[in-house]
């Protein structure tokens, strides 16, 4: 019997899944969703995180083996000063060159958000200084862009790279990007709209591009929503509680949300808007909140390992983004029976049908104001949206079957 058990184990496919860390974020929650759905009786899964940090580390289920940190790969979550201090001089020099190459390229092309360029150049220049992974796999998955690691440093029969963003709203060096994707066998995109914008830029990769949605378990979301009661939120009669979950970045449109909050208060609406998340624009947003005098009504709560009780406590969930790939938080709010207002970012219609299970409004301050004004004043619309989302099954655990098909080598 023991011999036969060993024989079965040998037949299991060996899978590698890689990402940067498990800090709070939509991509990281999606990764946890994937790890929770894999059948570990059929697959041996190694999980490689470049840095063992993040509030979601404790959410890793039993099943995958978390590989040890490789010191040189932790540099992608460190400052250049810290990289130098740790003695990784070639990587530090590469990062300095990459930072300024991205800034110059972005300035020449008048790019609003050149961060993607700096990341690209960083990997392109640093990869040669990084060690290869001394293991072999049937399938290697890069869950978070860019995918130089699995392309150049992993030996696998099949390599799969995930796309979580909308290529119509980011600027990348196409030559570097095409070179990277050329080393990947299968490309997974989280929505049809994201797939289209990617293929508009890289039509040569159409045959190896597949749409697989982020895996969402409604039972998990509802269970987590009951875990605790947010002490920061006090619900009073006549007051409307708004909640947004997301990183504090340009893409999420939170600066426009602050301005919309000011406008709604001036119109006499009694609102409190809570934002769960962190990111590079925190100081800028705090300054804007103070400048507009809305600090008692627009509250940045920072990191929360479990955002679901906050969504559960709100009257309306708001996603004021400039662009999204597939916003997991929108679906989670719908699972919790919340009326949702989202801006009309390019992939918005893949997330909801306006007037049916969300209200889609124009991007920017004026659009956010119009959308929230409409839904706050129209209780019938709120009831309709709530009724519709509660009657729908937003679970998509069967998406794992599409992933299993990609595992075939």
Description:
The chain folds into two domains: 2-70 and 131-215 and 398-407, Glycogen Phosphorylase B (Rossmann fold); 219-390, Rossmann fold (3-Layer(aba) Sandwich). The protein contains 16 helices and 13 strands. The chain has helices at 2-11, 26-37, 80-85, 89-108, 115-126, 148-152, 174-181, 192-201, 218-225, 254-266, 282-292, 308-313, 328-335, 365-377, 379-390, 399-407, and strands spanning 13-19, 43-49, 65-66, 136-142, 155-163, 186-189, 209-211, 240-245, 271-276, 298-302, 316-319, 340-343, 359-361. The strands form two sheets. It has a seven-stranded parallel sheet. The chain has a six-stranded parallel sheet with strand order 10-9-8-11-12-13, sandwiched between helices. The two termini are 29 Å apart. Mean pLDDT is 92; it is low at 1-8.
CATH architecture of the largest domain: 3-Layer(aba) Sandwich
Structural class: alpha/beta
- The count of β-strands is 13
Let me know the largest β-sheet. 7 strands, parallel
Output the number of helix runs. 16
Show unreliable segments.
Answer: 1-8
Strand order of the largest sheet: 3-2-1-4-5-6-7
CATH topology of the largest domain: Rossmann fold
Averaging pLDDT over every residue, what do you get?
Answer: 92
- How many distinct folded domains? 2
What's the shape? globular
Level of helix content?
25-40%
Beta-strand share of residues: 15-25%
**SSE string:** HEHEEHHHEHEHEHEHEHEHEHEHEEHHH
- Give the oligomeric state of the chains in this entry, treating copies of one chain as homo and distinct chains as hetero: single chain
Terminal Cα separation, in Å? Answer: 29 Å
Can you identify the CATH superfamily of the largest domain?
Glycogen Phosphorylase B
Q: Gyration radius, to the nearest Å?
A: 22 Å
- The CATH class name of the largest domain reads Alpha Beta
